[in-house]
Design brief:
Blueprint lengths: L1 E2 L14 H9 L6 E2 L9 H11 L7 H13 L4 H7 L15
Parallel strand pairs: 1-2
Length: 100
């Protein structure tokens, strides 16, 4: 399943995000590709939202993710988190895209 404008599901982990949670539950068994041109706001929890949308089991619960990775972000140790999310994300910067 290809989902464009995927930044709209970045908060699907939050109870108040009814649409995101419904999409997450409806697509739980589907393989997904999420596309967005909207940058994340450097929020580890937005990453968690997208990661848990792709595969709810890979990064565990919200509490587990916070305990493991927000601590690293607070300590300025992003390499461990980057390595962990590498198989899930492909990022293209604007300067890397050729004009058509």
């Amino acid at each position: 399943m290809v989902i464009d404008e995927a930044h709209r599901v970045r908060n699907s982990w939050q109870k108040k995000n009814i649409m995101g949670r419904a999409l997450k539950e409806a697509t739980v068994h589907a393989r997904k590709i999420l596309l967005t041109a909207t940058p994340l706001q450097n929020s580890a929890m937005e990453l968690f939202g997208l990661l848990s949308f792709i595969d709810p089991r890979s990064f565990g619960s919200e509490e587990s993710f916070r305990a493991q990775y927000l601590r690293l972000a607070d300590e300025g140790r992003h390499k461990e988190l980057r390595k962990r999310i590498e198989p899930f994300f492909y990022r293209t910067l604007r300067r890397q895209v050729l004009e058509y």
